[in-house]
Amino acid sequence: MKDLLDQIHTALGGSPDRGNVATYIPELAKVDPGHFGIAVATVDGQVFTAGHADVLFSIQSVSKVFALALALGKVGDALWKRVGREPSGLSFNSLLLLERENGIPRNPFINAGALVATDTYLGESSPREALGQLLRFIRSAADDDTIHINDEVAASEVATCHRNRALAHYLASFGNLHAEVEKVIGTYSHQCAVEMNCRQLALAGRFLINGPGMPRLISSERRRRMAALMMTCGHYDGSGDFAFRAGLPGKSGVGGGILAFAPGRASIAVWSPGLNEYGNSKLGTEAIELLVRETGWSVFA
Amino acid sequence: MKDLLDQIHTALGGSPDRGNVATYIPELAKVDPGHFGIAVATVDGQVFTAGHADVLFSIQSVSKVFALALALGKVGDALWKRVGREPSGLSFNSLLLLERENGIPRNPFINAGALVATDTYLGESSPREALGQLLRFIRSAADDDTIHINDEVAASEVATCHRNRALAHYLASFGNLHAEVEKVIGTYSHQCAVEMNCRQLALAGRFLINGPGMPRLISSERRRRMAALMMTCGHYDGSGDFAFRAGLPGKSGVGGGILAFAPGRASIAVWSPGLNEYGNSKLGTEAIELLVRETGWSVFA
Amino acid sequence: MKDLLDQIHTALGGSPDRGNVATYIPELAKVDPGHFGIAVATVDGQVFTAGHADVLFSIQSVSKVFALALALGKVGDALWKRVGREPSGLSFNSLLLLERENGIPRNPFINAGALVATDTYLGESSPREALGQLLRFIRSAADDDTIHINDEVAASEVATCHRNRALAHYLASFGNLHAEVEKVIGTYSHQCAVEMNCRQLALAGRFLINGPGMPRLISSERRRRMAALMMTCGHYDGSGDFAFRAGLPGKSGVGGGILAFAPGRASIAVWSPGLNEYGNSKLGTEAIELLVRETGWSVFA
Amino acid sequence: MKDLLDQIHTALGGSPDRGNVATYIPELAKVDPGHFGIAVATVDGQVFTAGHADVLFSIQSVSKVFALALALGKVGDALWKRVGREPSGLSFNSLLLLERENGIPRNPFINAGALVATDTYLGESSPREALGQLLRFIRSAADDDTIHINDEVAASEVATCHRNRALAHYLASFGNLHAEVEKVIGTYSHQCAVEMNCRQLALAGRFLINGPGMPRLISSERRRRMAALMMTCGHYDGSGDFAFRAGLPGKSGVGGGILAFAPGRASIAVWSPGLNEYGNSKLGTEAIELLVRETGWSVFA
């Protein structure tokens, strides 16, 4: 596995065609696009890495996986009254379907649905408490108490995220946001600003693998269902393409991170800040595709 | 397995809440909604059935799986220049995205994309030749030379399918239909009118399972990719829901049939003519959900 | 004319089918739907009224006419780089086209476009100054210094207008809002909360009529162009219907007021709080239709 | 007036920026973009012309005005159950709103609505009879029995109009087309292929002017209402812009013709084959704008 990751790193790490770094959050625009890291945490307890696997990055929308687990933990299937489970076929911050569907976002992985999930685990707590809960979940999954939120990135996002505020007020206009908009936006922006390196993220993803030594933070049924959502909706309007190429459930973030996993086998984290046309890490997607081709880990094998 | 199928049949076969039979093809509207059949063909060569597993039904859009295999066999990845691989988030016969995306259908399992797939395997052949090829593929997959097309259903569809003609002319207006519209419509309507029973359909689906004794009609890579497409797009705007509940790749048809499969394990066919809100078999979906829960066959387990 | 208005009042004033009062601004929901007032200010300087023509009401979106005049006065045709001049075919607070058209609202009479107009006349002034300017314009047009803003209605709107905030943040995300969102929302909500009675509103509308004694607040060309915009876009997705039935340029508000005018002849104000399916005053529309039928004032006569 | 038309011809006739000739009907693509003609038929019975006012061109969608008059003559207001009266905000051959609005086109001047109008005047007649009726209407309006259909243009359109067939089948799928699709398409394509020169078209448009010597083919109320529809919907998604600039009701065709009129004053026909971004004659629009500026004929003056 270590050799394989090194091969992937060699094949892709220096690729000239790396996509474009997200620019709409000022702090993210500063990230060096030359980074490339990958880490695999296998079900037998080992961790393999290559490239910049120890450099911290902003997990951004990968955090939606943890937020969804938390929201489901809090209200269970009642969440599905407020958010759907279907791919939207549209970009991550689209308002189009929201209007046609009375404020029920298509799924919890587009921004609108993620705001509902955040609003759900936030409940009547303070943002500080809610974010504390989120960090405890992630730290417990990764078995690493150093994982933290980058306050500068969070502040940068709070200061500039007009589109998310538009989504939040829009949800609120349909009564589908219960806490105050600014509280939800603040919590959400901090959630997105969680920082990890590939090693930590791969470890944090182990709660989605089925295996004897893996952290048991959610039930088996919930794990399978979250996997299905990640497969069909985890990469926005590039979800079908990711499933086609990688054959694994995964979730991307505009920071260039992707968390994917092979049920019963391994959790995989890649990071390369350049994004493809759908807003998913370009080299990250290619790396997982290569990894799956060599390991045969596709869930459809 | 036989016991499990009997249990499922007992649990669901007499359900009062069966959804509604499709009415837009007159011949389909005549079908008795009381039918319920299920068949499972396992990788070790056995077939198990329960209920009306030997009654013929119209496979309708399940045929898109065979058509896609044929189209890919003919032109390979060039097909993806004419059709996408993303869930559309819209109903099976929607024209909405087609307009915004210059005549490139979102995926080969919505009607617009299926018409492109049909146009592809039709090529410059006559409809008779092309349909002969399709039947040979299906018969070979099922190892059953009695599988045939119901000409009355096909004629009923040809006579009434204004919406598909609208889609076809629309594709033609973008230059994304190469054969004459009426030829494509005729071929497509006959393809949809293939008749099988659950036993035959389960057998025909074995080419999608990976296993020593299974028919090898397509490459492993293509098999995995088709599975991904079935998972993300196989149930129209209910694809996410099917993935969430069943955790298997599958393809439904408005005749009430569903073909699903567990990679490396089994091919599954169910039939119950009543449809849910997305146009997928209501009891069929529930049956597969039950089956997967008991067998643990979810690809995400 | 007085007789005609009395006839219209008699015919419609007690109508049982009055539409529904807008409920989304709490203060507006309290208004008695039984009100019905009408006033006509003719080019020869006379004013005729019937019904509750002296009861104050919230002009709401009728204010967009004055705001547009002010915005054009400030930046001239440069406004058309930030907002279009086409009917949207969608409801007054839709976000749909905004997304497809990169944050350029279709016209200045839907809410999104009106926010851009408000942002334009606001410029770098304080909301207080900008609203002072707006009031001066309206008072000067109506020759009535008592016209004022209802602060309770404004506060009610500021407290609840999630949808407008969504629009504003959305515009801001495209860089098409220059002042701070909350400043624009505050100014806009106060602008909508201008109170007038029918008599005052008919007088205020005289600047749109061409005539020797009429107030000359804008050039003739601008007057004609604003009339065209009111004709094609003044009643949201009911604009075509209003033009078809009334044959006059007009602008409605969800408070139940309509300002219409017959070029060279008269300015007309009606008020009836119940709204039709498009969010325009139901009896108000009928009253103008009747008035035009009897007077022959259609611009198409 | 003759001088004014000559000035307009001089100002615009040689303009280098003429827009693009429509190419989607092969016969139309052959037309020389250098043509420019204008004709004005005044209410006192005179006709003035300049430029290529005697060269025949294909009136295309301008024919929708005559078709609408005919359809209303046949079924009256019952037409409005099958077609709306609102601007669509979308291009002339869009299918988008049709899907959302259950097969009721937004207005009779977009292609979908025009197909319904054609289907209405066609009724149970043969296309030959129906087209005979249409020609009699136009000839009677223009007082010119030489007006005819160009069969080559019609045949070219029948052979290539996939998009209109898509619209027609789509309408049929909603039950909003009563005759056979091919019969409607044939009739519609011939209707669009009516040929006139500017002089004839200006004369044919006189039935829309109110005046003692003008042909009385429809009632005054219907005339006013058709004018309103032309004002709000006559130039597709450029209708608002035309109203803003010209201030007159008008209808354009992709052949480069525009018929506009000043109620009580004159009927105006212009022809210049190059189209602007909305598919309306570029120089034609500019010519009418100039004419109205000089004559003060805006309905909003």
Automatic annotation (TrEMBL), chains A, B, C, D:
Q: Which GO terms describe its biological process?
A: glutamate biosynthetic process; L-glutamine catabolic process
Domain of life of the source = Bacteria
Recorded hits in Gene3D superfamilies, A to Z, give: DD-peptidase/beta-lactamase superfamily
Q: Which reaction does it catalyse?
A: L-glutamine + H2O = L-glutamate + NH4(+)
According to its UniProt record, the EC number is 3.5.1.2
SUPFAM superfamilies annotated for this entry? beta-lactamase/transpeptidase-like
Q: Which family does it belong to?
A: Belongs to the glutaminase family.
Q: Give the protein name, as stated in the record.
A: Glutaminase
Naturally occurring in which organism (per UniProt): Roseibium limicola
The root-end lineage is: Bacteria, Pseudomonadati, Pseudomonadota, Alphaproteobacteria, Hyphomicrobiales
Q: Give the gene that encodes this protein.
A: glsA
